Amino acid sequence: MARAGYVRKHKLQTATECHCCRRQMPFCWTCRCGFSICQECIQENMWGMSCNGITWQCPDCGRQNGFGNQ
User: Fold this and answer.
1) For each of the chain's 70 residues, which pLDDT tens digit applies?
2) Whole-prediction pTM
3) In 1-70, where does DSSP find H-type helix?
4) Where would you tag: which of 31, 32, 39, 44 has the fewest CB atoms within 10 A of its CB?
Protein backbone atom coordinates (compact mmCIF):
# COMPACT_ATOMS: atom_id res chain seq x y z
CA MET A 1 0.00 0.00 0.00
CA ALA A 2 1.52 3.31 -1.06
CA ARG A 3 1.17 6.39 1.05
CA ALA A 4 -0.21 9.56 -0.47
CA GLY A 5 2.61 11.72 -1.80
CA TYR A 6 5.16 8.93 -1.39
CA VAL A 7 7.60 8.69 -4.28
CA ARG A 8 9.77 5.65 -4.53
CA LYS A 9 13.34 6.50 -5.45
CA HIS A 10 15.33 3.92 -7.35
CA LYS A 11 19.05 3.86 -7.77
CA LEU A 12 19.82 4.59 -11.40
CA GLN A 13 21.16 1.53 -13.15
CA THR A 14 24.62 2.33 -14.45
CA ALA A 15 27.09 0.10 -16.22
CA THR A 16 29.97 -1.17 -14.10
CA GLU A 17 33.46 -1.79 -15.40
CA CYS A 18 34.80 -5.31 -14.93
CA HIS A 19 38.26 -5.23 -13.33
CA CYS A 20 39.36 -8.28 -15.37
CA CYS A 21 38.27 -7.55 -18.95
CA ARG A 22 37.76 -3.77 -18.56
CA ARG A 23 34.40 -3.86 -20.40
CA GLN A 24 31.37 -1.89 -19.27
CA MET A 25 28.76 -4.43 -18.19
CA PRO A 26 25.18 -3.87 -16.94
CA PHE A 27 25.79 -6.35 -14.07
CA CYS A 28 28.97 -7.25 -12.22
CA TRP A 29 29.57 -9.18 -9.01
CA THR A 30 30.95 -6.60 -6.59
CA CYS A 31 32.94 -6.91 -3.38
CA ARG A 32 32.65 -4.41 -0.55
CA CYS A 33 36.21 -3.23 -1.29
CA GLY A 34 35.13 -2.05 -4.76
CA PHE A 35 36.41 -4.94 -6.90
CA SER A 36 33.90 -5.93 -9.58
CA ILE A 37 33.89 -8.83 -12.02
CA CYS A 38 31.44 -9.67 -14.82
CA GLN A 39 29.63 -12.99 -15.14
CA GLU A 40 31.82 -14.17 -18.05
CA CYS A 41 35.05 -13.54 -16.16
CA ILE A 42 33.82 -15.13 -12.96
CA GLN A 43 32.84 -18.27 -14.88
CA GLU A 44 36.29 -18.41 -16.50
CA ASN A 45 38.02 -17.93 -13.14
CA MET A 46 35.65 -19.95 -10.95
CA TRP A 47 38.33 -22.59 -10.34
CA GLY A 48 40.47 -20.05 -8.47
CA MET A 49 37.79 -17.90 -6.84
CA SER A 50 35.39 -20.48 -5.39
CA CYS A 51 35.73 -23.93 -3.91
CA ASN A 52 32.02 -24.61 -3.35
CA GLY A 53 30.07 -22.59 -5.95
CA ILE A 54 28.19 -20.75 -3.20
CA THR A 55 30.75 -18.09 -2.32
CA TRP A 56 33.62 -16.41 -4.14
CA GLN A 57 36.79 -14.91 -2.71
CA CYS A 58 37.82 -11.42 -3.76
CA PRO A 59 41.34 -11.48 -5.26
CA ASP A 60 42.03 -7.94 -3.98
CA CYS A 61 41.07 -8.12 -0.30
CA GLY A 62 40.40 -11.84 0.30
CA ARG A 63 36.84 -11.41 1.62
CA GLN A 64 34.23 -14.08 1.00
CA ASN A 65 31.22 -12.90 -1.04
CA GLY A 66 28.04 -14.84 -1.75
CA PHE A 67 26.43 -15.50 -5.10
CA GLY A 68 23.00 -14.99 -3.55
CA ASN A 69 22.00 -18.63 -3.90
CA GLN A 70 21.91 -19.52 -0.23
Assistant:
1) 556 666 666 666 678 899 999 999 999 999 999 999 999 999 999 999 998 889 999 999 999 999 886 5
2) 0.73
3) 39-44, 46-49
4) 32
